[in-house]
UniProtKB/TrEMBL annotation:
Domain Lactate/malate dehydrogenase N-terminal: 4-145
Phylogenetic classification of the source organism: Bacteria, Bacillati, Bacillota, Bacilli, Lactobacillales
Protein origin, superkingdom: Bacteria
InterPro entries the UniProt entry points to: L-lactate/malate_DH, L-lactate_DH_AS, Lactate/malate_DH_C, Lactate/malate_DH_N, Lactate_DH/Glyco_Ohase_4_C, NAD(P)-bd_dom_sf
Name of protein: L-lactate dehydrogenase
Residue intervals of the Lactate/malate dehydrogenase C-terminal domain: 148-304
Source species: Pediococcus stilesii
Molecular function GO terms recorded: L-lactate dehydrogenase (NAD+) activity
Catalytic-site annotation from UniProt: 178
Residues reported in the UniProt entry to bind NAD(+): 9-14, 34, 98, 121-123
Length: 306
């Protein structure tokens, strides 16, 4: 069966996503879309120049929304990252610009007849994911944001470094908004087959500092190079592969939770049909409070975006 992915927005993140997909041969057909025609055309040619030295071939189409009709997945990476390069690490600084762009793009996606799974990376991702779902009319379980899949990875990286182990050996989740109101749900985190709180006491880990490192990880990268791309691209590509392969993996992604009335990050089983099953974590009272606060904040911003 032929696999087909569309990427909308060929900035730093879109390029990184496309490069991972092409280099690893994750799709047969790739549709690249960007307002800057010369830029996206140059990217396509550059990728085609790379293919003779790769182990797989990818057919590339440029700036044709009609080609999205039979795509399995669309990945939204559009944005204006320089708006997020601010002292407050405020992802909502991008909202006015990205809201206007997403409204136009979502309408074109709808008109194309696309009926696959839409992955939003565009910030502020929980609000943008909601906006895409509303305009395209796709089922809620078919519109997913990368959410705290990246923040959870940042937490794993920080814990792994603190314990000198591979971050993939750390399990657990950051929840809520992909933004300043997200938090590490320490009750879900296990490492070396132990709850993290017990190990932290034994090894002298500062969990508050690790939580801050996860929350502000993007800020540290932006200070150094004025944008982030590799970490979130890896999250987006991982999510796309889980969908393509019907892997049914549990991931902390932005999905619509009825009990909170909004999109936010909470672990769910993800497969070819998008959100296949939602989990129900046994959180502490403090974590539940933080999650409700985060949901409330997201809902306020969604109302502003309408």
């Amino acid at each position: 069966m032929t696999r087909k992915i569309g990427i909308i927005g060929m900035g730093h993140v879109g390029q990184a996503v496309a490069q991972q997909i092409i280099t690893n041969g994750y799709t047969d057909d790739l549709v690249l879309i960007d307002k800057n025609k010369s830029k996206v055309g140059a990217d396509a040619l550059d990728f085609e120049d790379a293919m003779p030295n790769l182990t797989s071939h990818t057919n590339i189409v440029v700036n044709d929304y009609a080609e999205l009709k039979d795509a399995d997945i669309i990945i939204s990476t559009l944005g204006k990252i320089k708006l997020s390069d601010n002292p407050n690490n405020d992802r909502f600084a991008e909202l006015p610009h990205n809201r206007a762009e997403v409204k136009k793009v979502a309408q074109k996606i709808k008109e194309s007849g696309f009926n696959g799974i839409l992955i939003a990376i565009t910030n502020p991702v929980d609000v943008i994911t909601s906006l895409y779902q509303q305009i395209t009319g796709l089922p809620k379980e078919h519109v997913i944001g990368t959410g705290t899949l990246l923040d959870s990875a940042r937490m794993q990286r920080a814990v792994g470094k603190g314990l000198n182990i591979d971050p993939r050996s750390v399990t657990g989740y950051n929840l809520g908004e992909h933004g300043n109101s997200q938090f590490t749900a320490w009750s879900t985190v296990r490492v070396l087959d132990q709850p993290i709180q017990e190990l932290a006491q034994q090894r002298g880990l500062d969990l508050d500092q690790i939580n801050e490192d996860a929350r502000m990880g993007g800020r540290y990268v932006i200070v150094g190079k004025h944008y982030t791309n590799y970490g979130v691209a890896a999250a987006g590509v991982r999510l796309a592969n889980v969908i393509l392969n019907d892997a049914r993996e549990v991931l902390p992604v932005s999905n619509f939770r009825e009990e909170y009335g909004t999109y936010l990050s909470y672990p769910a089983v993800v497969g070819r049909d998008g959100i296949v099953e939602q989990l129900q974590l046994k959180l502490t009272d403090e974590e539940l409070y933080k999650l409700r606060q985060s949901a409330h904040f997201i809902m306020e911003k969604i109302e502003e975006a309408d």
